[in-house]
Design goal:
This protein has 195 residues and is mostly beta strands. It has one helix and 18 strands.
Length: 195
């Protein structure tokens, strides 16, 4: 009886060990050893869900080498192409607050991290500087922090958390901005020349 009981326990332990090993290897990212479910994957990036509200992201270069990786707690990171050679890594930090970093695939370089940018195109990034009064719209090069392109004060811009309603580049040097104005939040539009 003792031999049968011992055999059953050994069989049970082996069954659990083999089953766990298959589960862990099936959900393991072999390039980093991170365990979890792959949520989104592409040639240049991978997002892995490790637990509820716990994610890990990996960015690869053209040689499939890991060039950036990190953890994020909260909603899943969003990684998207903003053009053929640029990836946007967006990490949400709360209501209307997010942080973006950009990766230039062709030149293997990263931008600084920007807080809640409005639009990014033509290697230009547009964001509001909330530290200035009134809020100031800033346009600069994504990758070169010394390449400051322009600043604009939007007339009577509202002090709302997100006063910009719409932003679009009409071409490489022209920006269309629609924003809330004053305490009544009236819609105003302006076309800005970046030259």
């Amino acid at each position: 009886m003792r031999k049968i009981m011992t055999s059953c326990i050994i069989f049970f332990v082996l069954f659990i060990a083999i089953g766990s090993r298959n589960y862990l290897t099936k959900n393991k990212s072999y390039d980093t050893g991170i365990i979890g479910q792959v949520v989104k994957e592409d040639k240049y990036f991978k997002i892995i869900k490790q637990a509820d509200a716990e994610y890990y992201y990996i960015i690869y270069n053209n040689d499939k080498k890991v060039v950036k990786e990190g953890s994020h707690y909260g909603p899943s990171p969003e990684i998207n192409y903003i053009d053929n050679g640029t990836i946007e890594i967006l990490l949400q930090a709360g209501t209307n607050i997010f942080y973006c970093t950009y990766y230039d695939i062709n030149n293997d370089r990263f931008s600084d991290q920007y807080e809640s940018p409005i639009i990014c195109e033509y290697e230009k990034i547009v964001y509001l500087d909330y530290n200035k009064n009134p809020f100031t719209l800033v346009v600069r090069n994504i990758y070169d922090t010394n390449d400051f392109l322009n600043e604009f004060i939007l007339v009577d811009i509202s002090s709302a958390v997100s006063p910009i309603i719409k932003a679009e580049f009409l071409d490489e040097n022209t920006l269309n901005i629609v924003y809330m104005s004053g305490q009544e939040f009236k819609e105003k539009a302006v076309v800005l020349n970046l030259n």
